[in-house]
Amino acid sequence: MAFNGTASVFNQLYSGTDYSSLSWLEQQWVAWYIWIDNPVIATGLMSFLLHELVYFGRSIPWIIIDSIPYFRKWKLQPNKIPTPAEQWECTKQVLLSHFTIEAPAIILFHPMAESVGMFTHHVPLPSLKTMAPQVFLFFFFEDFFHFLAHQALHTGLLYKHIHKMHHKYSAPFGLAAEYAHPAEVMILGTGTIAGPLLYSYFMRDLHILTVYVWILLRLFQAIDAHSGYDFPWSLQHIIPFWSGAEHHDFHHMAFTNNFSTSFRWWDRIFGTDDKYRQYRARIDAAKASMKGVSKEEELRLERELLAEIEAEGIRAEAEAETRGFLGEKKTKVQ
């Protein structure tokens, strides 16, 4: 065995570890920590690189799809295709947020994680059987946190000065998943990381690799939800309670409803999908009445309905800026 790092670091982190008994992945995990020669930097750098590679790696296919007219038939708002200029502007803002907000927070993650009992540099790595229920629990926790925090961000000053930035695009696209005010990144990001930290504090059996799997899947979910496309093979057609792009696209278009991220159940339970369900009923009724009409007529009627919903969304957005945190309408003092 040969490492570029120092033997002292290996002895410090992996004293008593039988390297030959480790799997290939576990050997690479050990090699990374020894090579970086500092567990805090090793965890921070790996976390940041994972986030960047997954975020932009998952966004690129949607950029390509947006540039190919063939896919427009599955575009939820086909008359709104992001331009290269919009894509680039979004990319610059996202990168700024990643390097100024997320990178410093990620560097602090190693000491924070270990302080609550999370395993980081440790081997052996957890099995899929161990990780699966933990990841589902994080999805569940984050979805409910996001449901509550997202609604708060739609009120008064929180919307006007923070969340409005994310609603710049009424027809979202993949890269726009993290196009947000720095304060929003911190607020909603709390739901992503608080679940693993709380779980680790109470259970003391969580490995950071599980957190990485959770982050990877969460990024895929967020980017796909903002993609603006609903394919026949999209996950919401396989898992009925999955949110997906079709669910979240309505939120950007109509401004109201559908505040959850991954699942549909909280919006259904609390009635924050009423306008969305009315919209779907109107779509289904319109399709039923358009049998035999030309494709051009079908597209015209669909665009009229989309325009009507978006106009209602613009009015709802203006109203939200006049409401307080608990939804009460502000009145001017005479």
What does this structure look like?
By secondary structure, the protein is an all-alpha fold. The chain has one domain (14-320). Helix content is 63%, strand content 0%. Helix 6 (128-152) crosses helix 9 and helix 12 (274-289) packs antiparallel against helix 13 (295-320). The radius of gyration is 23 Å and the shape is elongated. It comes from Pluteus cervinus. This is C-4 methyl sterol oxidase.
Write the layout of secondary structure elements.
Blueprint: H1 7-14, H2 24-36, H3 39-66, H4 84-107, H5 109-115, H6 128-152, H7 156-161, H8 182-203, H9 208-225, H10 244-254, H11 265-270, H12 274-289, H13 295-320
* Global structural class: mainly alpha
Q: Count the domains.
A: 1
Q: What is the number of helical segments per DSSP (H or I, 4+ residues)? A: 13
Radius of gyration: 23 Å
Low-confidence stretches: 1-5, 330-334
**Biggest beta sheet summary:** none
Number of strands: 0
Protein name: C-4 methyl sterol oxidase
